[in-house]
Design a protein that fits this description.
heterodimer, A: alpha+beta, 6-stranded antiparallel sheet, 3-stranded antiparallel sheet, Nicolin-1 (chain A)
């Protein structure tokens, strides 16, 4: 289970545009969100959760701290772990435009251990939407495998519902027995739950108030 | 009177014939006013309202006899309450308290609590010279009387009373009183339900197999076993352990164990079942 989102810095989306940004009026359909993780803490990624905001397609690339990933000139390679994942089935319409998405590590194309940076490339080919981005982006590291502390043991050992095929002849109807026994249980539970904290205040030892028997506590 | 006069004087300058009507209005206006006033002053309104509320709380099957006994108790508690001698008065108070606590079933929690508090107040008033309060003796007598009406066996009742009784000289606070009374009623219902369970287990033959009984009681004890979790989880756990399939398996397994057929009679079954219940009753200390 997730223990909580990993600390990271999410930069605001940068639109990729061909030509001069200021003079060219055409709206770009591609944006890039860079997520920078603290340099000393490479992340074993378990899950990426975000809320979509009118993005149609998503590509995710990661930079890992692996010796195989280092290119010839020493820089780290970017590895694609999700390519053109469709968030909106029809980019001109609203479907999926504001949904929450969750990407697990087993859905990704490559291994995402020891990640140092994540880049999300957003594409929105439709001219209908003025702005598109991803909101509430969170990365979850791989948590511990232990169960929660207050998890009752019997829930993890649930026996499957078995229908006993051939019951003995003398076994009484289980349904009726179960009804009655459950009512007995409820009555006992009720009396256990309604216990009073009030005390009469008896200080005797076995019915005797002899001064030699009384204790100081 | 002032309002009648106002009504009379206003139309008077208008027409001559108008004089007749205000007078009639004045006379007619006085009578319904005085009827309502009379009811209010004599306390009949509040008394009838109380009676109606009691009927609604208790939902008796025979409302008329219920109301009759209610008004009879009211008469007894009125002028004669403090006048009778102490023992006679105490007996009456006990009877009245018994009647109060029997009004509502213990599952109607608010109504039951109200009735218990009224019974407590009724028992607390102990006559002119004595100090008010419920002492252990009258509390224990009330508990015994409650348990007498049910069909619980003597042993069972005495083992419960041993846990919740108070000594004669002790002063019983309201919480302890309520807990004791509630335990008695729940025990009576428990005995009735255990009886029904025995009827199911014996399949109409009158005698149930000992192994089956022990298997069922063992499952119940297991489900009642101390668990520290919060209420919803405890209910889920009990529900899963006491479901028909688990019980069927337990009973089936029990029947496969030994070939000797011994039976458990009703008294023994009730004793064992109520022992499970009484174990959960917190003793008063």
């Amino acid at each position: 289970m997730a223990t909580g989102p990993a600390p990271c810095t999410v930069r605001s989306p940068v639109a990729l545009q061909v030509g001069d940004v200021k003079t060219d009026l055409a709206r770009p359909g591609v944006a890039v969100i860079d997520v920078v993780l603290p340099p000393a803490q490479p992340l074993d990624l378990q899950e990426i959760i975000f809320k979509n905001s009118y993005t149609a397609f998503l590509t995710v690339r990661v930079q890992r701290r692996r010796p195989c990933d280092v290119g010839r000139d020493g820089t780290r390679k970017w590895v694609t772990c999700l390519w053109n994942h469709c968030l909106m089935p029809s980019p001109h319409t609203e479907a999926g435009s504001q949904d929450y998405f969750s990407l697990f590590r087993h859905q990704l194309l490559c291994d995402v251990d020891q990640v140092t940076a994540v880049r999300l490339i957003l594409r929105q080919p439709s001219p209908v939407w003025l702005h598109f981005t991803l909101e509430e982006l969170r990365l979850y590291p791989r948590g511990q495998q232990s169960l929660q502390t207050d998890f009752p043991s019997w829930l993890s050992h649930l026996a499957p519902q078995q229908q006993p095929e051939n019951l003995h002849g003398g076994v009484p109807d289980p349904e009726k027995v179960s009804t009655e026994v459950q009512q007995l249980w409820v009555l006992t539970e009720m009396i256990r739950a309604n216990q009073t904290a009030a005390r009469i205040g008896r200080f005797d030892v076995d019915g005797c108030y002899d001064i030699n028997l009384l204790s100081y506590t | 009177m002032a309002s009648c006069e106002k009504r009379r004087s206003a139309p008077a300058p208008a027409t001559g014939s108008g004089l007749v009507e205000p007078v009639r209005a004045g006379v007619g206006g006085r009578e319904p006013e005085s009827e309502a006033e009379f009811l209010l002053q004599s306390g009949v309104t509040s008394m009838v309202r109380e009676a109606l509320l009691k009927v609604l709380e208790a939902r008796p099957e025979e409302p008329i006899s219920f109301l009759a006994s209610y008004f009879e108790k009211l008469v007894l508690s009125g002028p004669q309450g403090g006048a009778a001698g102490d023992r006679h008065g105490q007996h009456q108070r006990l009877g009245r308290a018994l009647w109060y606590v029997r009004l509502a079933h213990h599952s109607h929690r608010t109504a039951f609590n109200n009735n218990v508090s009224m019974a407590y107040e009724c028992l607390s008033a102990r006559g002119r010279r004595k100090k008010p309060g419920v002492n252990g003796r009258i509390y224990s007598e009330l508990l015994k009387k409650i348990c007498q009406d049910g069909e619980a066996p003597e042993e069972v009742v005495s083992s419960l009373l041993r846990k919740i009784q108070c000594r004669d000289h002790e002063a019983v606070p309201f919480d302890v009183f309520r807990y004791g009374v509630l335990s008695c009623f729940v025990l009576l219902e428990f005995v009735a339900k255990a009886d029904t369970l025995y009827n199911v287990l014996d399949d109409g033959s009158g005698v149930a197999d000992k192994r089956v009984c022990q298997a069922v009681l063992g499952t119940l004890e297991d489900a009642l076993g101390a668990s520290d979790f919060s209420v919803p989880i405890r209910y889920l756990e009990a529900g899963s352990k006491l479901g028909p399939d688990c019980l069927a398996l337990a009973m089936d397994k029990a029947l496969l164990e030994r070939k000797i057929c011994s039976s458990m009679n009703r008294e023994e079954f009730l004793k064992k079942a109520t022992a499970l219940f009484i174990a959960k009753v917190k003793p008063i200390d």
